[in-house]
Design goal:
Elements lengths: L7 E2 L15 E2 L13 E4 L4 E5 L2 E5 L4 H13 L5 H7 L4 H14 L19 H13 L5 H10 L6 H10 L10
Parallel strand pairs: 1-2
Antiparallel strand pairs: 3-4, 4-5
Helix pairs in contact: 1-2, 2-3, 5-6
């Protein structure tokens, strides 16, 4: 017999339901109204399709969200497991678990492919840009090498090339006179 604290059927006659908190009462599963509810996922190198008794739903070759969702369905619902499902979709098992966690936390938005690489400019921060512009206005004849050296002496990590890019981005290059 199952412990009454964890599993209570509504039609139980052995326990009075008035003494059981409502959140602990489990309802019996509803009877199935239809017989064949099988849904399958067909996956090849280039094509992904969901198919069931009602028809076929093809998925675009470029739809990464559907591909990742299909992988999670195969791994979690179809019983293939993380390793086999990840290998079938050419991903690592670690990536499978990352996607599963993202899907649990954010839903389908967690499966969207994020751009790789740094998200911010960690060398050319707003403060560094202001300092480069300031040094350029204080000494308009100073080359990028001198400005970079002054900033490094002040304790900032910046290269000469980064200073040159900042100067070019803000149009602070020296104008050459043409005869």
């Amino acid at each position: 017999m199952v412990s009454p604290l964890f599993h209570v059927w509504r039609d139980s006659t052995t326990l009075p339901l008035s003494h059981v908190p409502p959140h602990l009462i489990r309802h019996p599963p509803s009877p199935r109204c239809y017989t064949d509810t099988t849904m399958n996922i067909s996956f090849s190198e280039k094509h992904l399709r969901f198919f069931g008794p009602g028809g076929i739903l093809p998925v675009s070759d470029h739809d990464q969200v559907c591909r990742r969702l299909a992988m999670l369905i195969l791994g979690e619902c179809e019983g293939q497991g993380a390793t086999q499902a990840a290998q079938q979709f050419h991903l690592s098992r670690q990536r499978y678990y990352q996607l599963r966690t993202a899907f649990a936390q954010q839903g389908a938005l967690g499966l969207i492919l994020e751009p790789r690489g740094p998200k911010t400019d960690y060398r050319r921060t707003a403060q560094i840009v202001r300092l480069v512009i300031r040094h350029r206005f204080l000494d308009t004849e100073a080359p990028a090498e001198v400005i970079a050296q002054k900033l490094r002496q002040e304790g900032y990590t910046i290269s000469q090339r980064s200073v040159e890019r900042i100067i070019a981005d803000y149009g602070l290059q020296k104008k050459t006179l043409r005869p």
